[in-house]
Amino acid sequence: MEHRILKSEEADQLIIQLLKEANRPLTTREVQAETEKRLVRCPDATVVFLNNLRIKGLIKGEMSKEKRGWIWWV
Q1: pLDDT above 70 as % of the chain
Q2: Containing domain of residue 20, as a range?
Q3: What SS3 string covers the chain?
Q4: What is the mean pLDDT of the chain?
Q5: Which candidate in 14, 36, 53, 54 could, as Cys together with 61 as Cys, close a disulfide (CB 3.0–4.6 Å)?
Q6: Exposed (0-12), middle (13-18) or buried (19+): which is 23, by Cβ within 10 Å?
Q7: CATH number of the domain that 24 lies in?
């Protein structure tokens, strides 16, 4: 089954919802896995899209040495 590419606003809402529901910071891979479970894709590469949301101030993110990559939260 093919993944549906979300429009920007729809993807913003989905990512924010995923992070709120997680109740903990998620890695980029975890966010990507959750979107794949829903058979959807962000308009850009997941890490690019997440970073743009961070720049807009909609989510927070930082590099985690422990997780060896970026983590994201609301």
Answers
A1: 99
A2: 4-73
A3: CCCEECCHHHHHHHHHHHHHHHCCCEEHHHHHHHHHHCCEECCCCHHHHHHHHHHHCCCEEEEECCCCEEEEEC
A4: 94
A5: 54
A6: exposed
A7: 1.10.10.10
Quote the tokens at residue 1: 């089954």
Asked if 63 and 69 touch (Cβ cutoff 8 Å), the reply is yes
For residue 21 the two structure tokens come to 């529901």
pLDDT along the chain (74 residues), means of 10: 86 96 97 93 90 97 96 98
The pTM assigned to this predicted structure is 0.90
18 neighbors 34 (Cβ within 8 angstroms): yes
